[in-house]
Amino acid sequence: MMKGVFVWSVSAVALCAQAPTCPSRALVNQYCLGCHNDKLKSGGFSWTKLDPSHPEQNADEAEK
User: Fold this and answer.
1) Is the pLDDT of residue 3 over 70?
2) Which residues lie closer than 8 Å to 36 by C-beta, 6 or more apart?
3) CA nearest neighbour of 6 among 32, 39, 25
4) Is the dihedral of CA 28, 46, 56, 10 positive or negative?
5) Of the candidates 3, 28, 2, 29, which has an alpha carbon nearest to the alpha carbon of residue 13?
6) Which of 6, 25, 59, 63 has the most other CB atoms within 10 Å of its CB?
7) DSSP H or E stretch at residue 30
8) What local confidence, expressed as pLDDT, does residue 42 receive?
9) DSSP type of residue 56
10) What does the pLDDT average to over 54-58?
11) Neighbour count for residue 4 (Cβ, 10 Å)
12) How much of the chain is in helix, strand and coil states, percent to nearest 5?
């Protein structure tokens, strides 16, 4: 399950670069931020400061 979610999330981020409006932040907010936030940091990762439409701004976090 997690592998499928990860692949789908990476695909959404990749497609976001091609789209004029990026729905990735809404996806992250709905499905990821509940566990991957600054308070819980599940898996040692937080989406709080990472903008899925501009992963290059936080490349180290985006690579995780």
Assistant:
1) no
2) 42, 43, 45, 46, 47
3) 32
4) negative
5) 28
6) 25
7) helix 24-31
8) 95
9) G
10) 91
11) 8
12) 55, 0, 45
Residue 63 amino acid letter? E
- For the chain, what is the radius of gyration of the CA atoms? 11
The dihedral built from the CA positions of residue 18, 21, 25 and 29, taken in this order, carries a sign that is: negative
DSSP summary character for residue 34: T
For tokens 């600054």, the residue is: 38
pLDDT tens string 12-55 = 555 554 444 568 888 999 999 999 999 999 999 999 999 888 89
What distances in angstroms separate CA 51 from CA 1, 12, 20, 46, 58, one per listed residue? 24, 12, 15, 11, 8
Q: Which two tokens stand for residue 13?
A: 């981020």
